[in-house]
Amino acid sequence: MQLLKDRIRRDGKVREGNVLKVDSFLNHQMDTALFREMGREFKRRFEGEGVNKILTIEASGIGIACAVAEEFGVPVVFAKKTKTKNIAGDVYTVKVESFTHGTVYDVIVAKEFLGSGDKVLLIDDFLANGNALEGLAELVQAAGAELVGAGIAIEKGFQSGGDMIRRKGIHLESLAIIESMDEKTGEIVFREDQK
Amino acid sequence: MQLLKDRIRRDGKVREGNVLKVDSFLNHQMDTALFREMGREFKRRFEGEGVNKILTIEASGIGIACAVAEEFGVPVVFAKKTKTKNIAGDVYTVKVESFTHGTVYDVIVAKEFLGSGDKVLLIDDFLANGNALEGLAELVQAAGAELVGAGIAIEKGFQSGGDMIRRKGIHLESLAIIESMDEKTGEIVFREDQK
C-alpha cells in the first residue's frame, strides 16, 4: 500500500536491533485518517470472504482493527495480555513470547466472543517473528472458529514470521513488507507489492 | 446519551463488587458503529474548543479514542502502562493505581507527542475512582499542554472519580452516568442527562 510505505519512509525511524519506530503515526500517536485508508485496503483484500469478526491483540493493534471492523460492519474483539478481575474463568488462553518486551505472557479471549460460527480476520500492526499472530490463530482454532486470514500493517520481511504464517496456509496480507533496513543510513527497502 | 444507556441496559451485566460488565460491546468485544456515534456525540460536546489532540490510555480506551479523533480530524496518543524497548527515556511518567487490577503501574507518554501547543481532550471508557483520568491530566500538565476536558463513556456516579475530576475544574462529559446498580436484580439507574 503506497500510502503506508510513503509514510514509513517519511516518518519511520530505523534504530539499532532491527527496530523500526513508527510511533508518530502507528502505535503510540495514531493517525486515524491513515487507519481509515488501511481499513478500506484490508476490506478490498478480504472482500467476499464472509468475515464476520475481527480479532486483534492489545494494545497497538486496536486502532487499526477498529477501522477495519467498521469497514466490514462487524465487531472487533481484542485479545488481552493478562487475566483481569473483570473476566471470569471462561476464556481461551495461549502463551505468547513478546519480541518487543522479551517476555512470555498469557493471551486470553472470552469464550462467549469467539465461537464456531465466526469467520475471523486477524489484524495487527506489526509482524516480526510471528508469535503474536500465531497465538491469535491458535485462539481461533481453540474456539472452533474459521480463520479467514490475517492483515498486517507492517511486516518485517527479513524476520521469519511472515514465511512461517504463509507456510501454515494462512492468507496473509501485509500492507508494507520491509525487505531490509539500515540503521546507519536510515534507508528502508520494501518488497514489491504482489498486487 | 440514550443510545449508550439503552445498550448498557440491554447488554450490561451487574456483578458483585460494583463491577459492570460491558465487554460484549465496549471493552473486549467492541461495537465500532456505537463507537462512531459516541465519537460524534463527544465532537458535539467539545465542539469549538480547539481540540487538536486526543489522549487516552491503553487498552480499552483506544477504540473509542480513535473514533473521537477521526471526528475531530486530529491525532490520538495512547499513554502506555509499561516502559517498552521501543520507547527511549524521553517520556513523561505518572503513577496510577488500577481499580480493576488492584496494582500500581507507571503510565508514560513520549515527550515528542505531547507539548505546549496541544489542546488535549482526554477519552476513556470508564470513570470510577478517577485514578487513570487524573494520571492523564497530570501528563497533560507535565507536558505544558492545555487540558480542554475529558470525555468518558460510562461514569460510575456512585464512586468518587467524577466529583473529584469536576472539583478540579475539568470539563467532564460522561455519556452515561450510573447512579446505582443492583447485582441481585441487575437493575441499573442512570443519572438524568444534563443536556
Describe the structure.
The structure is a homodimer of 195-residue chains. Chain A has 195 residues and is α/β, with parallel strands linked by helices. Chain A has one domain (2-190): Rossmann fold (3-Layer(aba) Sandwich). Helix content of chain A is 28%, strand content 33%. Chain A has 5 helices and 11 strands. A 6-stranded mixed sheet of chain A has the order 5-4-8-9-10-11, with helices on both faces. Chain A has a two-stranded antiparallel sheet with strand order 1-2. Chain A starts with a helix and ends in a 5-residue tail after the last strand. The interface between A and B is large, with 39 and 39 residues. Strand 5 (76-79) of chain A pairs antiparallel with strand 3 of chain B, so a sheet runs across the interface.
Provide a short characterization of the protein structure:
2 copies of one chain form a homodimer. Helix content of chain A is 28%, strand content 33%.
Let me know the average pLDDT of chain A.
93
Uncertain spans of chain A: none
Fill in the CATH topology of chain A: Rossmann fold
The best one-word shape of chain A is: globular
Estimated share of beta-strand residues of chain A: 25-35%
Write down the domain tally of chain A.
1
Structural class of chain A, by secondary structure, is alpha/beta
Assembly type of the chains comes to: homodimer
CATH architecture of chain A: 3-Layer(aba) Sandwich
State the CATH class of chain A: Alpha Beta
How does the major sheet of chain A shape up?
6 strands, mixed
Distance between the termini of chain A: 9 Å
For the secondary structure, the number of strands of chain A is 11
